[in-house]
Write a structure and sequence with these properties.
9 helices, alpha/beta, globular, six-stranded mixed β-sheet, five-stranded mixed β-sheet, 11 strands
Amino acid sequence: MDPIFAIGDIHGQRAEMERVLGLIARDPEAGAPVVFLGDYVDRGPDSRGVLQVLIDGQAAGRPWIALAGNHDIYFRDFLDPEGLSWADARRWLSDSVGGKDTLASYGVATHGRPLADIRADARAAVPQAHRSFLAGLPLLHETAAQIFVHAGVRPDVPVAEQEPDDLVHIRAAFLDDRRDHGRFVVHGHTSAEGPVHRGNRANLDGGAGRGAPLCAALILNRDVFLLREGGRTPLI
């Protein structure tokens, strides 16, 4: 029953991130670890600011665990000359994925420019501290009672044998499976569903990437309490 907090997909919404961190700071369990479930960048206006808050918080010794989301990996690989293919790089910059918003937060213009120039400018503009942070993000965090992960886990596959791609991309095979996974799984990634509690898992992606409020929750074993300005609300 050790308390632990979790924060869903942030997607560049720094103001929302600071709001829910304030809710955690005012909770009676403040000081317990906080797990960020990935997707810090894309779509929102301040991806750079979100990454800086995470970097500064960890440097200050706060008990923050920041996991990798698929959008964070897209950004990391876009900056790698041997990372994303040209087609995938173009897709990342699209309105639907939101990479152009991430680059805008670093002062990199994208409209009507050759992709090679955009990538070169991005590599020059993104601080090495941010690139190192993205490169070091773990794919999951385990406790005795829970598994924290961005997208989910492949059912019936031991944690140590999970495919990295599943941990950041899986949907139907995980979301539709109501069996117990041995431990309670806390995840994000699927904003169309969250926040919900399905008994064997909880999805904390409430759609901040689409302008909805960011979700933060206190997890006690398999009980989930969303944090609101008026206090905790059980997620049933």
